[in-house]
Design a protein that fits this description.
Heat Shock Protein 90, single chain
Length: 386
């Protein structure tokens, strides 16, 4: 059948595999009497069946089971291996329940007994409806998967851009603000040594104290923007984060565990650090907790970071609130390195976040990622260490 002939038809194009002309005519007449607008193409050999599939486009296949030298299931296997998705209905004499069951298990759409051909239009229409629904569902699933992949790519790009901007800001603070504050402090100290007026001394000392405070604040901001302590390893970085966070907020923070495996990929270490940082901030803002515990391990090739608190906790409905975008961001950040984030919520029992990252996959991805933007980003981050 030529594609042009098929394109000229207004109704359904049906490929009929049947070696009995009389039975084919019965099928044609039965469908003609129904409301289905269809055209049948008859083939009676497996070779002709294969050729018709290659050169034509069909909406459904009707096939006898008992054929010369082969069966309808052989034709079904050929159709399935061709990669085409077309409804396939067996139209045959009595073949037994076991054979019908085997056909259904192998994926055949339906079966109609030749002695009850009046059921064929209904079965064919139902099969086509089911097929269209499944195809629409499959297309929707593929579209959703594509959208999720695009969202993951966008998230990774945004995270890389954010880290790059953080590194640039840290460099600006270090080179400009930090240098200027240091120069101001030196000049104030020079004036203080040469001025003996008591009132001037008080003002100069206050200015020196303010300059010292500003220098400390700028250094703290730089470390938060680009944690240079990560260069010493994830565990020391998390320990430093916990210590400085506890000193600044008064929240008791403990770090347990150890990392015994090889050095972590830089992107994995950064994701884990940012997850701990965000979790501590959320605990301080929302949990009403007095204590927070962080546990790190890399057993069995999986990096595990668990952050738990003794706060008021929350119910599952909390994840549906608009304020839960922080958790959504952490989940998306974990996905950029092939990991995932589990959240354990319970009213009155605190909140536990568990970051899991398979290290073998992360290492393989890092080694295979040769994109210039990623290489440039990593270089920029290293060069801007405060």
């Amino acid at each position: 059948m030529s594609p042009s002939l098929h394109a000229a038809r207004a109704g359904l194009a049906i490929l009929h595999l049947e070696d009995n002309e009389a039975d084919h005519e019965l099928v044609r007449v039965t469908l003609q009497r129904s409301d289905l607008d269809c055209t049948l193409l008859l083939v009676d050999t497996l070779a002709d069946f294969e050729a018709a599939l290659k050169h034509g486009a069909f909406d459904a296949v009707l096939a006898d089971y008992h054929l010369g030298g082969f069966s309808g299931l052989d034709a079904w296997d050929l159709l399935r291996h061709s990669g085409q998705q077309i409804p396939f209905v067996l139209v045959s004499g009595a073949i037994g329940e076991a054979t019908v069951a085997e056909a259904m298990v192998r994926g055949v759409s339906d079966y109609v007994d030749k002695n009850r051909l009046n059921r064929l239009p209904m079965v064919l229409e139902r099969t086509l409806d089911v097929f269209r629904a499944r195809r629409a569902q499959q297309q929707a699933a593929e579209a959703l998967a594509h959208s999720q992949r695009r969202l993951a790519d966008l998230t990774e790009h945004l995270q890389a851009s954010i880290e790059r901007e953080r590194a640039n800001i840290a460099r600006e603070i270090h080179d400009d603000i930090g240098g200027s504050l240091a120069a101001v402090k030196l000049d104030l100290a020079w004036l203080a040594r040469r001025n003996t007026d008591p009132d001037a001394q008080r003002h100069l000392q206050a200015a020196l104290d303010m300059a010292e405070h500003a220098l400390g604040a700028s250094q703290r901001i730089m470390r938060n923007l680009r944690p240079a302590v990560l260069d010493q390893g994830l565990l020391p970085a998390v320990q430093w984060l916990a210590r400085t966070f506890a000193e600044r907020t008064g929240l008791a923070v403990e770090v347990h565990g150890q990392l015994g495996g090889p050095d972590l990929p830089a992107d994995v270490a950064l994701v884990a650090y940012r997850t701990a940082q965000e979790a501590l901030t959320n605990t301080l803002k929302h949990a009403q907790a007095s204590r927070c515990t962080l546990e790190l391990s890399d057993l069995e090739g999986v990096l595990m970071l668990e952050i738990s608190d003794d706060g008021v906790g929350a119910g599952p409905e909390a994840l549906a609130k608009a304020q839960s975008f922080g958790l959504l961001g952490l989940r998306e950040r974990a996905q950029t390195v092939g990991g995932w984030l589990d959240v354990v919520l319970a009213p009155g029992a605190g909140v536990t976040l568990i970051l899991s990252v398979p290290l073998a996959d992360a290492t393989a991805r890092t080694q295979s990622d040769t994109a210039p933007t990623r290489a440039t980003e990593e270089t920029s981050l290293r060069d801007t260490q405060p």
